[in-house]
Amino acid sequence: MKLVYSVFAFRQQAKSPIQVAFVANAGDVLTWAGIPRKSDELLTGYQRFKDDDRINRSIVPFFQNPANCSPTAVIIALRADTGIGRCVLANTEMPVGEVVETQLEIEMDEDAMKTDAIFEQALSYIEQRLGADAEQSEEEVSEDDDQDLDEIEDEEENGGATDISVHLGTETLAKMRDLLRDKENWVNPAFRDAIADYVKPAMVIDGQHRISAGAKFGPKGLPFMVCGLYDATWSEQVFQFTVVNIKPKKIPPSLITSIAALSLSKVEQSQLRGRLNQAGVKMTEVEIMSMVAYDDQSPFSNFIDMGVGEKSAKSDLLGYAAIKRVAKVWYTAQRNSFVQIAKSLFSTENANKARSEWRSSKIWFDFFCLFWGIVRDHYPNSYWKKYEGNRFFIGASLWALQEALLIEADGQMKSHWKVAPEASMEERVESLRVAFEDVVRTNLAYVPVDMWSVPWEKVSLDTNQGRDELRKLLSKLINDGKIEGRVAKNWKADSWFK
C-alpha cells in the first residue's frame, strides 16, 4: 500500500515536532494508522478501550444526519520508519512559523502485516526504548518536583511530584518484551491484533471513535481533517494524548495514572515530568497510585478500578478515589506514628527531614504493604471481593479501619519506636516493622470479624461524616476489647447493627 497526500506543513516552535495538515478518508486512516489501546494484553498502550456502544449509539447517528460534520482534526503520529511501514515528508526543512506546501507519502507492507514480521519489528521497537533506559544511570528530576507537595497534604485532588517512581513503565515494557520473545503468544489472535497496531506507519493520538464511526459510511469512509505530528517519539505521543484529553473532556485520574505510570519508561517519564506537571497532570498522585495499584507487593494490586478495560469488568473493583484517600495518608506522613518511625529509621529529630526521607526512600510504601498485608491475612478471602452483604470491601470501610488502627499506633509511647543507635539500616527497618506489626495485630484482634457481614443500621457511609462515624465505632470496639481482653462480648448490641 502506498498513498500520497498533498499537505501543509509547519513547525510551530523551534523544538516542537513538524505538524502536517491534510485530508484523509476514515477507512484509509484505519488501514495505515494503529490505535495503541491500553489492553489486557498490552498495558503499555495509551489509548482508551474502544467503546462500541458510544460509536454505534452516539457518533454514527450524529453522522447519519447529512447536515452534521466533525470540524476538528484527528491527531495522528506519523512514524518515519517502523520496519513494515513509513511516513515520508518530501520537505522537512521547516523554518519556525512558516507554512510549507509539500507531499506526504505513507507506505505499508500489507503482506508483511499478515506474517510474524510484526512481532519481530515490535520487539525491535521495544528493545530500542528499553535501551534508552539502560544507558541512563540516573533519572533526571524536574525542578518542579517538590513545588506542589503541600497541595497533596491539603487536598486529595492536588499534588506535585517527588522522585518516588518505581519505574513501573520500564517494568511493564520489559514484560511486553518478554511476551514478544515468547513465540507461543504469536498464535494468540488478540495479541496479534494488539501488536499490529504498534508497527503501522502511524498511530491515532486523538479521534479513534470519530474515525471508527466515520469509516462506516461509504466505501472509504467519511473524509476528516488530519493533524499529523511528524516523527513524534512515543513519549511525545503519550504527552499529546494526555494534554488533548485532560482539558476539554477530562479523562479519569485512574486512567491518567495507568498511562503515565505504565506507558512510559523511566527515562521517558523523567523527560516528560515537567511538561506533564505544567499540563496539569498530578504526578505525585500518579506515582503513589501506580505503586498501590500495580506493584506486586501491594495488597491492592489488581483490586482497583484504574480506568482500564470494559465497564462490566470494573463493578467488582474498589474505587480509585477511595483508595487514593487511603494511600495518601501513608505518603504525606502527617501521623505521629509515621514521623516517629521515620525519625528513628533515619536518625534525625527534624520532622520535615524525616518525612522527606520517608517519601523518597519509599519506606512509606513498605509500611503501607505491611499494614494491609496484616489486614488481608486477618480476614477471610471472601471479604476481599464485592458481594451483597459484605461491608468490608468498600472504600469507606477500609479508610475507617485504617484510621482506627493508626490512631492506636499514634498513641504509642515514643520509646516504642526506638532502635539501637548502632543498628544498621536493615536492622532498623526490621525492628520498626516488628514494633508496628505488634500494634496493628494487637488492636485488629479486638475488631469483630463478623461485624462486616451482619446487617447494619447505617447506610451511605462514603461521606466525611459517614466515614468518621464508622471510625468512631471501630475505635469504640477496640477500646471495649482492651477492657475485656478480647472481642467485646456484646458488640452486636451497639445501635450501629440491626
Structural commentary:
There is one protein chain. The chain is of the alpha+beta class and 498 residues long. It is 47% helix and 10% strand. It has an eight-stranded mixed sheet with strand order 3-7-4-8-2-1-6-5. Helix 3 runs antiparallel to helix 5 (168-181), helix 3 crosses helix 6 (189-199) and helix 15 packs parallel to helix 17. The chain is elongated. The chain starts with a strand and ends in a 14-residue tail after the last helix. Residues 137-148 and 153-166 have low confidence and may be disordered.
Keywords for this structure?
single chain, 498 residues, elongated, eight-stranded mixed sheet, alpha+beta, 10% strand
Give the structure's gist in a few sentences.
By secondary structure, this protein is an alpha+beta fold. It has helices at residues 26-32, 52-64, 117-135, 149-154, 168-181, 189-199, 208-214, 234-246, 253-262, 266-278, 283-294, 320-332, 336-346, 351-360, 363-378, 395-410, 425-444, 464-484, and strands spanning 2-11, 18-25, 33-34, 74-78, 85-89, 100-108, 202-206, 223-230.
